[in-house]
Amino acid sequence: MSTPFEELGLRAWADPDEIRAAYRARVKQCHPDMVQDPAQKEAAQQRMIRLNLAYEEALRLAMPRKTAAYVQEIPLEDAVNLAERMLSKGNPEGALRQLMRAESKDAAWHYTHGRVLMEMEYYHEAHLAFRDAVKLKPDNNRYRAGALEAAVAEKKAGTLQGKMLHFVRGLKRKK
Which is nearest to 141 in space by CA: 38, 109, 149? Predict the structure, then answer.
């Protein structure tokens, strides 16, 4: 099961304008009115339903990022601590929102950002965040271990077994 961003062919941190443009482009490619064959028309209608749901969900997820400029910034240490608490409670989206409120970013911020992204199963983006932490503190083995874990998870997610596991997790979340 793909994320709303993957369904639209976008990276996980696309802004609302990118989401709208991708949605319009995908709709033009597979609109049911462009198909004459009844079987293909049904498949196109199902694709449109998935696109519409992905579009709405992607916009919902992207809006807090766009309005983040209007949210009061908090000290870096407070943002990281709040994000850690949210992560421990199983709320990676809330943790991400807290991190985005930080007035600055350091290695600990990037490391926590990577942990949040791992929890959300955005392995490639998590790997990049961990690498940013390693660039700032090259001797920190915990940051290096996070980068390695994300790289391995990204590689595993690309296998058939990883895709099946992702699909099953998606089904469990919907219940």
Answer: 149
143 near 137, Cβ under 8 Å?
yes
Q: How far apart are CA 157 and CA 123, in angstroms?
A: 8
List of domains in the chain: 4-67 (1.10.287), 71-174 (1.25.40.10)
Digit-coded pLDDT (tens) for 73-115: 889 999 999 999 999 999 998 898 889 888 899 999 999 999 9
Rounded to an integer, what distance in angstroms lies between the CA atom of residue 23 and that of residue 2? 15
Whole-angstrom CA distances from 21 to 10, 25, 55, 129, 139 are 10, 6, 10, 27, 42
pLDDT band at 172 (very low <50, low <70, confident <90, very high): low
Residues shown for the chain: 175
Rg of the chain over all Cα atoms, to the nearest angstrom: 19
pTM: 0.56
Closest by CA position to 10, among listed 26, 28, 32, 27: 26
